[in-house]
Specification:
The protein is of the alpha/beta class. It is built from five helices and seven strands, in the order ααβββαβαβββα. The chain starts with a helix and ends in a 6-residue tail after the last helix.
Length: 181
């Protein structure tokens, strides 16, 4: 590169951009923090199903028998509440296909009772002290679990809740295909 080219780059590209470098650095840091805190799928190891009560810990989830969909939500979350009618419509079909639908929240019992009254087919709503304690930082978050309590898929955000998605999940368990929510 010649001295003229270097001078051109320095004068017309680097110097004018100099005042924007701190903003660019802050933007990159903000996006990285947002991704790390809210977007990435939580890392939870699933333990083999056991007969004792359902429990969620940072180490895993126990007490679920067979394939399951574990959906983390909160009553104050607009997108979560927007999914509830579709989840309720899907609950009966999931049961017919042998898939357990479990909703997990950190809401107090009074709000859970209101949810059960509003959506009667969503009977399996469980409470934990804090979603953050189990690595769920963004809601709604959903885990699809196979019959051996291994997480086969995870999604943070709104899902497509349809009989077709249940069918794809069930087919992936029997065929060994990768399930993409």
């Amino acid at each position: 590169m010649s001295a003229e080219q270097v001078a051109f780059i320095r004068v017309y590209i680097l110097y004018p951009m100099k005042k924007y470098i701190p903003y660019l650095a802050i933007g990159i840091l903000a996006v990285g923090f947002y991704w790390y805190r809210y977007i990435r799928a939580p890392h939870i190891e699933f333990k083999p199903g056991q007969a004792e009560a359902f429990s969620v810990t940072p180490d895993g989830i126990t007490g679920i028998q067979g394939p399951a969909i574990v959906h983390f939500y909160a009553s104050w979350c607009g997108p979560c509440m927007g999914e509830m009618p579709a989840l309720e419509a899907l609950a009966a079909e999931a049961g017919r296909q042998g898939i357990t639908l479990v909703l997990v929240t950190d809401d107090e019992q009074a709000k859970i009772d209101v949810m059960k009254a509003r959506y009667p087919s969503l009977t399996d709503i469980r409470s934990i002290p804090s979603l953050k304690d189990v690595g769920v930082y963004s809601i709604p978050t959903t885990f699809w679990i196979d019959g051996e309590n291994k997480k086969v898929a995870a999604n943070t955000g709104i899902n497509e809740w349809s009989e077709a998605s249940l069918f794809r999940f069930k087919r992936s368990l029997t065929s060994g295909e990768t399930y993409e929510p």
